[in-house]
Design brief:
single chain, 256 residues, alpha+beta, OB fold (Dihydrolipoamide Acetyltransferase, E2P), two-stranded antiparallel ribbon, 5 helices
């Protein structure tokens, strides 16, 4: 394909208008830039940080088969797919990404770039070839693996005790560095709690400021209503105790 390649434009404002409201991005506005990825205990799942050019979103979850290329910092991806859904877990809106298209790769065109869609289908297990037995009486021996296959298998295994021993004192410093990088990317626990409270206030304040009844229309038979009034006088706090209820009360004067 000839001609100058155009830089993909990010879908600005989608994080604020959709992701933070618990909605998946629309198919015509789903272009983001990858901030970082973090591998979880499950090798097929990664924490995903995105930006639309205006805001950052660090509550993404990438689900991709083990062995497939994981997007890295700087990649521009298109998440327009029906398989990508928004999941509400407690107070968090998590975007689960199962399919994506790399529009621009930070590693160059040779790293799954150029607009190719990442294949998230499970890789078929490799069946080792067996050598032909020379005689019917001799037992069949398993085929020997090549050096490349042996190296690939060794890389996927968990580091053994010898590798841990060779790390020595540097292991603690690497753990501290990883913890610092995690805090820098996803924020501290206090910051996440402040973001949760702010989102909760944004959802509750419009309901509090919307009156369902006027003061003049209230009667003793209404037990659920919302009014909007100005407090002109506030009395002293007094304690009340009875057989059915104990607590504090005070008089208040409201003006419509």
């Amino acid at each position: 394909m000839s001609g100058a390649s155009t830089e993909p434009a990010l879908s600005r404002g989608v994080i604020a208008s959709h992701l933070r409201r618990g909605q998946a991005p629309p198919k015509d506005r789903a272009v983001f830039q990858v901030l970082a990825t973090k591998k979880l205990s499950d090798p097929t799942k990664h924490r995903l940080g995105l930006t639309d050019g205006d805001q950052k979103y660090t509550e993404g979850l990438l689900v991709i088969p083990e062995g497939r290329r994981v997007p890295v910092r700087g990649d521009v991806v298109d998440l327009a797919s029906r398989d990508n859904q928004m999941v509400l877990t407690g107070e968090r809106n998590i975007l689960v990404v199962k399919k994506f298209t790399v529009l621009r790769s930070s590693d160059g065109p040779g790293a799954n770039g150029g607009g190719t869609e990442a294949d998230t289908s499970a890789a078929e297990p490799r069946t080792p070839s067996t050598s032909t037995s020379r005689g019917s009486s001799s037992p069949q021996r398993p085929a020997k693996r090549s050096a490349a296959e042996t190296s690939a298998v060794d890389d996927t295994r968990t580091p053994d005790s010898s590798a841990s021993a060779s790390a020595g004192p540097s292991s603690s410093s690497s753990n501290n560095g990883a913890a610092s990088a995690k805090r820098a990317l996803f924020g501290s626990t206090q910051r996440l709690e402040e973001d949760r409270r702010r989102r909760q206030q944004d959802d509750v304040l419009p309901q509090l400021l919307h009156a369902t009844h006027q003061i003049k229309d209230l009667n003793p038979y209404q037990n659920k209503y919302t009014i909007l009034a100005r407090i002109t006088e506030l009395g002293q706090l007094a304690e009340r105790n009875s057989s059915r209820w104990s607590g504090y009360v005070f008089n208040v004067t409201l003006q419509a």
